[in-house]
Design brief:
Rossmann fold; binds nicotinamide-adenine-dinucleotide; globular; about 120 residues
Length: about 120
């Protein structure tokens, strides 16, 4: 058991899920944040079933208001956030010439700007 609290984004699947479960095994409380509420709840449930501490946080990392709400919820549950894993991301696996401006902007926002938003929010929370 430790006082550490981690916010892991994109934690409902893949690498984010694996990071969340690994950190939880070290006694770190986890905010399992994802766009997909059911997936976040499932991973939080897995962690608790293994004896860890976690809450599911449904939020879009590109939305400052949603990240703010999620960070406050995590702090209220377990105390100040001490670790951030900016893992959430999307890929646009399609031919370069078929990518639209909107898809390009969304990729940069979710993959790049979100790290700025999430890190700034966590430091301020
Ligand atoms: N898997 C790879 O080989 C690989 C290689 C290089 C980089 N990456 C990067 O590592 C990260 C994780 O990869 P993965 O393979 O586990 O991906 P994944 O698609 O399995 O999981 C990504 C998770 O992020 C969530 N997510 C997407 N957009 C979100 C948003 N706006 N807000 C909150 N959550 C959001 C998804 O719902 C999903 O649960 C991604 O950023 C990816 O780009 C992966």
């Amino acid at each position: 058991m430790t006082n550490k609290v981690a916010l892991v984004t994109g934690a409902a699947n893949g690498i984010g899920r694996a990071i969340s479960r690994r950190l939880a095994r070290d006694g770190i409380a986890i905010g399992v944040l994802d766009l997909l509420p059911d997936g976040a709840a499932k991973v939080a449930g897995e962690i608790k079933a293994e004896g860890g501490r976690a809450i599911a946080l449904a939020a879009d990392v590109s939305r400052r208001d949603e990240v703010n709400r999620a960070a406050k919820e995590l702090r209220d549950a377990f105390g100040p956030i001490t670790i951030v894993v900016n893992n959430a991301g999307i890929t646009g696996f399609k031919p370069f010439l078929e990518l639209t401006d909107e898809e390009w902007d969304r990729m940069l926002t979710v993959n790049l700007k979100s790290a700025f938003i999430v890190t700034q929010v966590v430091i301020r929370t």
